[in-house]
Write a structure and sequence with these properties.
The complex is a heterodimer of chains A (254) and B (473). With 254 residues, chain A is an alpha/beta fold. Helix content of chain A is 40%, strand content 18%. In chain A, helix 8 (207-223) packs across helix 9. In chain B, 74% of the residues lie in helices and 1% in strands. Chain B is built from 19 helices and three strands. Chain B has helices at residues 2-20, 24-43, 54-63, 69-113, 118-156, 159-172, 179-188, 190-196, 203-212, 222-236, 242-270, 292-325, 336-350, 355-363, 371-383, 400-409, 414-425, 431-441, 444-472; strands at residues 44-46, 329-330, 334-335. Chain B has a two-stranded antiparallel ribbon with strand order 2-3. In chain B, helix 5 runs antiparallel to helix 12 and helix 6 crosses helix 7 (179-188). The radius of gyration of chain B is 27 Å and the shape is globular. Chain B starts with a helix and ends with a helix. Classes of the chains: A alpha/beta (254), B mainly alpha (473). Chains A and B meet through helix 4, strand 7, helix 6, helix 8 and helix 9 of A and helix 1, helix 2, strand 1, helix 5 and helix 12 of B. Strand 7 (154-156) of chain A pairs antiparallel with strand 1 of chain B. Chain A: Residues 31-193 form the FeoB-type G domain. Chain A: This is Ferrous iron transport protein B. Chain A: GO terms for molecular function: ferrous iron transmembrane transporter activity; GTP binding.
Amino acid sequence: METNVKSACETCGLYNKAGLKKLGIHTDNFDFVVALAGNPNTGKSTVFNALTGLKQHTGNWPGKTVTRAEGGFEYNTQKYKLVDLPGTYSLLSTSEDEETARDFILFGKPDVTVIVADANRLERNLNLVLQILEITDKAVLCLNLMDEAERNKVDIDIRTLSRDLGIPVVPTSARFNRGIPELIQTISEIASGKIVCKPHRIKNVPKNIEKAVKTLTENIEKEFPNIPNSRWIAFRLLEGDKQIINALRTGEFI
Amino acid sequence: MKDNNIDHIIELSNELRWQIGDEFHDNLTESIYADAAEIVKDSVKTQDGEKRFRLDAKIDKIVTSKTWGFPIMFLILGTVLWLTIVGANYPSSLLASLLLDTVHPILRSGADSVQMPWWLSGFLIDGVYLAVAWVIAVMLPPMAIFFPMFTLLEDFGYLPRVAFNLDSLFNKSGAHGKQALTMSMGFGCNAAGVVATRIIDSPRERLIAIITNNFSLCNGRWPTQILIATIFIGAVVPKSLSSFASLLAVIGIAVLGMAFMFGVSWALSKTVLRGEVSTFNLELPPYRPPRFWKTIYTSLIDRTAIVLWRAIVFAAPAGAVIWLISNIHVGGDETIAAWLINGMDGFGFLLGLNGVILLAYIVAIPANEIVIPTILMLTVMVTGIGGGAGAGVMFELDSINATGDILKAGGWTLLTAINLMLFSLLHNPCSTTIYTIYKETNSVKWTTVASVMPVILGFVVTFLVAQIWRLIF
């Protein structure tokens, strides 16, 4: 056992570097599972490398990560398994990479979902963010590429954004390791239940649809009390998603 | 009871789906975008919005323009290859003289001093060690130059622009535009290219991309092309132009590979894989200045080391096999290797190749990287040159000229060289790629098609070239 003398800085809750151990590919006996989702080309793999200390190749083109990559880190004696999902624009259609991402968030039931978004293209990125927030309520928005946003003079009010989305928002520049300690701290607080999210749910839905969704949601909740994503399942059932119908039969998502 | 409830929910959803009509998907998407717009309005402020990404747009206008897009693409490819060809020369001969001229004799005399039996030292030192040393000397320098440069381009954001430029060509051949990305990955490694096809949604177009990925020259084949072009093509022209001529030859082969990819994609989409071309969105990501040293480091550690390791892993047993087949005799005094080579020589001649090359391609199915070392070793054995090196010993070469001398002694002509370059482009994928294709398609049929079709094409093309060549010259 190592016993290091810790300086004041290292023991501070905001910059707890001493508590962080990058575990690379060693992910046995983890306490929490963290999923990394987001649009293509927002730097998910860079965030993944920054958290795990792995050197997975990152490329500047959409679709770089086609398979799930896994890695781990240890923070304050708790082990986290990190899963880097393929980048997707949406969870509503059916290509293989989108299905991989959706299935993991829905069936893998990660303890925390980190949604990586490009700060320069927030509006387009929110499409996916809002969909994920229908599925899980344990999420944090990692607003990446802040260095580019600063250069492009895009100014984002983090607090308002966080309040509107109902989840923590952490600005980062993963390429330069900026914001990563804060991100780790936030992940651990969500995982331990210290932060409880109250995520935004899709508004602006036409009345007739909202009514149908509500009826269906109530029925689903009667059958499966306490599931966080009954409304999203209702959306999928109305769409006629065969996979979700099957999952409902097998009870896979409980 | 529970099943009943679930059936009830599903029935209810079917009913409700009828009520709300089929615009549900669009409506939902619209609601999400409306929400997104509201949120952004409250929290994001953009100053001088029009000026954003102005530089990016300017670069894009040039590199994706109708006039300049293709010339710039070839110029970049040419520069990367030229730097690889010129830059790899010196370290290659340095490594060769170290591993082959210095270490190998030391190992041999070491084996003699402990009185190792001849067959064991032959097997280990002349077979396994020499094969590995050869692969390192031939492969490492070009890879260590090519991969980092390719990775820098990738990180800069150039690949999606290539996809943009090539999109109309892919469209015309009935394939998916994202195949340009998987093709580019194939230039590094075909197995990686095949895995990358997962970004293509349509199964039909994905299959086309998988089957034709082998037409991207992979890193195992670049050194072969570069070496043969330097020895034979470079020698036809005046010395001052020789590196330029060999560069053109290598680019020519790479472009020919792309032409075959378009041709075969087209043929497949008109016959067994008929269907509509699907549309897709391709994001042109912002240009990002790569973090130079980090990229160099990662690509050396990640790609170069891994690929080199793979080559070594396959080269060691191949070296052992080569040594064995050239030292075990069948019947009279003929070795297995000589027997096989003689058997295939006739067919090889028809293709403008020879039995040695064909046998080398069989031995090298596990890894394309070891084709040239195998050819050299077998040639030395057949021609009997090389002094006291003994049967099945990979010859020690400290310069490209020495390689050329051996090949010429083995009866090689310019035709053999050209056809070898063609056959290196058009033959079966390596065993790793074949296995990857099987894993990705889950179909024996398509794996067979993807493996056999390129060989048949290779036979046809080299046969035609040989016959026409012999008619003219």
